[in-house]
Amino acid sequence: MTSSAGPGLRADAARNVAQIRAAAIAAFHGRGLGTPLEEIAAAAGVSKATIYNRFGGRQGLIDAVIEELVGAEMRAILDRARRPGDPWERLATYVTDLLDLQYREPAAVDVHLKSYPDSAQVAAQWNAGRATGIALVERAHKAGVLRPDFTAEDMYQALVANALVLRHRPKPAREDYDRRGRFLLDSLRP
To answer: Where in the chain is the domain with CATH 1.10.10.60?
Structure first.
């Protein structure tokens, strides 16, 4: 299985890989990682078998493009959350940034729902986010700026619940969505 247009790939095969990647990014960006492979193949101008031949199927395709879809933004969110500063502001920014990413990027919803647990890239993003969230909750508790009964698991359950709403209900207006995010954060103060 070849998942990149590396050395030794014929020009037409390299072109197919590039077209598949571009079609997958566009499709996953619009509809999430569950977009039918037939649609991605049609958009790329190849057969579904070509996706399997070049990427090994959905899992390989996800691993090949998830960085471009979600990875860079997730790292930026984690970097902002890890900067020194007020523990409440760091936690609030982290939650707000994740809610924003979920709203804008259906693939981020798949990451938070662990929809593709066999994807090493998706698991790595989820684990990095979880570790950062745990650290932020601990620091906020130590600073006395977070209600003592709220845990990191509570935070992740809230993010999963939000992701499920975005996945299975009509997308709310942005203004309403952001207002509900503020309600969540306001409820976390001691």
So the answer is: 11-61
Instruction: Looking at the structure, give the CATH architecture of the domain made up of residues 11-61.
Output: Orthogonal Bundle (1.10)
Place of tokens 């977009």: 35
pLDDT in tens, 107-119: 999 888 888 888 8
CATH class for domain 66-186?
mainly alpha
CATH 1.10.357 domain extents, the chain: 66-186
Q: What are the residue ranges of helices labelled H in 57-119?
A: 58-66, 72-82, 87-104, 106-113
Rounded to an integer, what distance in angstroms lies between the CA atom of residue 23 and that of residue 27?
Answer: 6
Tokens standing for 44? 């790329």
Q: Which residues have a Cβ under 8 Å from the Cβ of 165 and sit 6 or more positions away? A: none
DSSP per-residue letters across 19-54: HHHHHHHHHHHHH-TTS-HHHHHHHHTS-HHHHHHH
Interior CA angle at 159 toward 152 and 135, to 5°? 30
Q: Output the pTM of the full model.
A: 0.85
